[in-house]
């Protein structure tokens, strides 16, 4: 998967399912984000069916700990941001707003950290700067 995706210009892969061969992806410095890992390969039960089309992702059934998230449709051109904590989809029309909110959030977090390092309690610092 990694070599094929890199050949097509992909910088990483986000899978609404499970993946395998993590060592291969890591060795190629190719980020892969998925719902989990498996020893099973894709054949014969999964195949790419479409490329560059809207994709709707349903929330994971978590039993009594339901996520409460509605289905999400990712459109071609949307910005995907992913790290070890999760994946976020930013619609193209919201990119500027999200960048502004993120910059403000970083400033607020920096003020919180300054106060916490100076000995103020976490709750007090958050209340003071986050409201």
UniProtKB/TrEMBL annotation:
One of its GO terms (molecular function) is 4-hydroxy-4-methyl-2-oxoglutarate aldolase activity. Pfam families: RraA-like (PF03737). CDD domains: RraA_family. InterPro entries: RraA/RraA-like, RraA/RraA-like_sf. Its cofactor is Mg(2+). Keywords: Magnesium, Metal-binding. Substrate binds at residue 20. Mg(2+) binds at residue 21. It comes from the Eukaryota. The keyword Metal-binding applies. This is RraA-like protein. It comes from Neolentinus lepideus HHB14362 ss-1.
């Amino acid at each position: 998967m990694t070599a094929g995706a890199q050949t097509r210009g992909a910088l990483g892969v986000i899978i609404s399912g499970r993946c395998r061969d993590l060592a291969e992806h890591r060795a190629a410095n190719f980020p892969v984000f998925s719902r989990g890992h498996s020893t099973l390969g894709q054949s014969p039960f999964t195949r790419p069916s479409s490329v560059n089309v809207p994709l709707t992702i349903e929330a994971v059934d978590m039993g009594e700990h339901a996520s409460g998230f509605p289905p999400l449709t990712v459109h071609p051109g949307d910005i995907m941001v992913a790290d070890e904590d999760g994946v976020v989809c930013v619609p193209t029309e919201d990119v500027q707003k999200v960048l502004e909110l993120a910059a403000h959030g970083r400033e607020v977090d920096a003020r919180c950290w300054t106060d916490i390092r100076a000995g103020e309690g976490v709750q007090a610092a958050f209340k003071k700067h986050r409201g």
